[in-house]
Amino acid sequence: MLSPQEEPVLLSMGVKQENLHVVTNGVDPYFRERLPDAEREKLISRFLLPDNRNLMLFVGNHTSNKGIDVLLKALPLMSHDGVAVIAGAIRSQREHDELLAYCGIGVNDGRVRFTDFITKEELRALYQSVQLFVFPSLADTLPLVILEAMVSALPIVSTEIGGIPYEVSPDTGILVQPGNPAALAEALDKLCGNEATRKKMGSAAEARVTDMFVWERSAEQAVSIYREVLAEIGQPKIQ
Q1: Which domains can be identified in the chain, with CATH numbers?
Q2: Which among 125, 120, 122 has a CA at the least distance from the CA of 144?
Q3: N or C: which end of the chain has fewer CB within 10 A?
Q4: Cα dist. 139→66, 176, 204, 208, 235 in Å?
Q5: Using CA atoms, how far apart are residues 21 and 224, in angstroms rounded to an integer?
Q6: How far apart are CA 59 and CA 132, in angstroms?
Q7: CB of 47 within 8 A of CB of 114?
Q8: What is the pLDDT along the chain (239 residues), one digit of tens a residue?
C-alpha cells in the first residue's frame, strides 16, 4: 500500500491483514536544492507574479478530479488578498474558457494566474517563490506534488481523500472536505493571514517528508518484503 488509507479497500477485496504492508512514495531530491534568488526570479519572470500578495500554488493536471473549479470558486469567498498560481498545461482552450465562465472568473482576473506548461526547473522555482501550496483534489492516492511542496517547506491546504491525510499531518497543513469552496476559502484565509503559522507548518512539513518519504527507505522496505515472501515459499534469498 502507498498509505494505510488503502487498507479498507484491500481488506474488502479479500486480502489478508498479514499480507498488507505500507511502502510509500518518496520525494525527488531535486526539489530539496535551494536556488539563489537571482536564478529563482529569472526562472519565474515570465509568470509576472506580484510580490506584495500571498501566492497560493496549485500543481496538477487540469482535469475535473483535481478540484481546480473548487479553488476558483473559493477565491471570491476569501477575505485575504491572495493569488492562486495554477501550474500545469492547459489541455484545451475551449475547456479552459468554459471552466472560467462556470466559476465566474474573468480572463484577466487578478486573483488567479495560469502558467500553462512549466518545466521542472520552473516548478522548483515556483515552489520556492510562493507562500503556500493548495491541492483541492476530489480523488487521489498519494500525490507526489504534495511531497514536493512539503520538502520545499510549504504549508499545505488540501482535502481529506486518499492518502493525503497520511502525507499531511495537522502540524504541516490544513485538510478540508473535498468539493467545499467555503471550507477551502476558510483554510486559505487562516494561512494567508498568519505568516508565523505558515513558517511553522512549512518547517514541520519539510522535516516530515525528509523523515518519512524517502525513496531509499521505500526500496529497502520493498526488498525486505520480497525476502520474507521468498523465504516463506522456500526460494533462494535476494542477494
Answers
A1: 30-216 (3.40.50.2000)
A2: 120
A3: C
A4: 7, 13, 25, 23, 39
A5: 11
A6: 12
A7: no
A8: 999 999 999 999 999 999 999 999 999 999 999 999 999 999 999 999 999 999 999 999 999 999 999 999 999 999 999 999 999 999 999 999 999 999 999 888 999 999 999 999 999 999 999 999 999 999 999 999 999 999 999 999 999 999 999 999 999 999 999 999 999 999 999 999 999 999 999 999 999 999 999 999 999 999 999 998 888 888 666 55
For residues 56 and 83, is the Cβ–Cβ distance under 8 A?
Answer: yes
User: Is residue 190 a contact partner of residue 174, using CB atoms and an 8 Å limit?
Assistant: yes
Angstrom distance (rounded) from CA 195 to CA 145: 22
Taken in order 86, 90, 93, 96, is the CA torsion positive or negative? Answer: negative
Dihedral angle, C-alpha 133, 138, 139, 144, nearest 10 °: -10
CA atoms of 35 and 134, how far apart (whole Å): 22
